[in-house]
Amino acid sequence: MKEDRAAGTKVLQFKVRSGGTIVIDVDRCLGCETQACVKVCTIQGGPLVLDGERQVPSLRWSLSEIERGGCVECLGCELDCELYGKRAVHIELPLPGFDAYLSTAAESLVYQIDRGGQCQS
Ligand code: SF4
Ligand code: SF4
Description:
By secondary structure, this protein is of the alpha+beta class. It has one domain (2-96): Alpha-Beta Plaits, CATH 3.30.70. Helices cover 30% and strands 26% of the residues. It has five helices and eight strands. The protein has helices spanning 26-29, 36-43, 63-70, 76-84, 98-104, and strands spanning 2-4, 9-15, 21-25, 48-51, 56-59, 89-92, 112-113, 119-120. The protein has a four-stranded antiparallel beta sheet. A two-stranded antiparallel ribbon has the order 4-5. Strand 1 and strand 2 form a beta hairpin. The longest helix is centred in the middle third of the chain and has 9 residues, at 76-84. The chain starts with a strand and ends with a strand. It binds iron/sulfur cluster (2 copies). One iron/sulfur cluster (SF4) binds at residues 24, 28-29, 32, 34-37, 56-57, 81, 85-86, 88-89.
């Protein structure tokens, strides 16, 4: 686990095959009752497992194994944490051409959910 000393928080951070990065703010996970990220990742055959001692997500493979394809980049951990957990997961994936595609759309295709649960375009 990598420690973010500047912010004083602990994060679980790993690279994935596409060149993207997954970051889990493990401090937020303390007290999470669902561990939804681990459940969906297990279904996908991915790298997240539960640290039995702290009851927070951990990795079952090395960083290099995960970067070689251990994470299938399904985005399930971020989505299910948003829906059922404590909004601790952030995924950034390179999407070549995506911004150009969005600029051609007639209306906004990007939505954000604010902290009050409202959907905004
Ligand atoms: S669902 Fe979210 S808050 Fe809960 S353990 Fe997983 S990453 Fe942490
Ligand atoms: S993106 Fe999918 S496979 Fe990768 S860590 Fe998240 S749930 Fe697991």
